[in-house]
Amino acid sequence: CVVVFLYQVNLPRPQGETFVFQYGAIPSVIFGYAALPPEAMGVPAIVTLLTSMFLHGGWMHLIGNMLYLWVFGNNIEDVMGHARFLLFYCLCGVMAALSHAATDAASQIPMVGASGAISAVLGAYLLLFPRAHVLVLIPGIGMTRVAAGIILGMWFVTQLLSGGMSMGAQ
User: Which regions of the chain does DSSP assign to beta strands (E)?
Assistant: First the structure.
């Protein structure tokens, strides 16, 4: 995700926008309601459900996703093993992108980000480590241990809110 994002943000603006349209998941293209011009096609539309997971909408989007993946993903990868974790991550990300695309199948706005795959990893974490605590920095208080369920609940709420806001922006 980081390597692709660094590539993406270092492209000149017109090429960067084309890159997002080529590899972001565009619901109307995936469901056949619209088509990209041949020169804007990067991969077949169905493949963008996978490639879109490696693009991000900005630095905070990338940093937030990677922070949660770093803190919680390694535990799930330890349980599953590298190959099964990668398969789980990609399949869940594709399913999440497809589900999100289905909420507005006529949308022509590219979807990007790993939030769906990371949400699946966090869900797995809650199932496998329901009583775990994580060390967090709380401004004004300092480092403290907080139940992972609270942190993950905050993640899911922010994802729902940001998803709702993006639907309203269309």
Answer: 133-138, 142-147
